[in-house]
What does this fold into?
Amino acid sequence: CEIDATRVCIVGASFGGYSALAGAALHPDAYRCAASIAGIGDLGLFLSEEARLYGRASAGFEDLRSQLGASDGDKILAMSPARHVAAIKAPILLIHGDKDTVVLPSQSQLMADRLKAAGKPHELVILADENHYLTRTATRIQTLEALERFLAKNLPVN
It folds into this structure.
């Protein structure tokens, strides 16, 4: 099976959503489109929110910093997709539940605001009454339909 490198879309949820956004921002020629579901757009903001909610001494906060290799603020900022929207070439789909308490919806809203300010093509879908895990059938369907439309638009079948 051959993969057409010009027709690759990166898609992820939660930290995978961060990875999708980071792929589009830090490797702008690698992807035709990117979709982030409940993803992190700004690592600095995310770590600040985590520290405010759970304390800097929490295991989750330190685990995340360790996973990111984020020993200092400059490194965190350098890895944040929201800080690199000017480099993004691919259309971006952002999907987020409005009741998400794991990755706050402000992450996707901030990313959408920055993409809009930079004139970058993007879509933001806010799922009403939905949490981080997309536990409701109706919003799972809404997510899949939005993703299907986005992929059909940005990776049309020849």
Summary: The beta strands are 9-13, 33-37, 92-97, 122-127. Helices lie at 15-26, 43-54, 59-68, 73-78, 106-117, 137-154. The first strand starts at residue 9 and ends at 13.
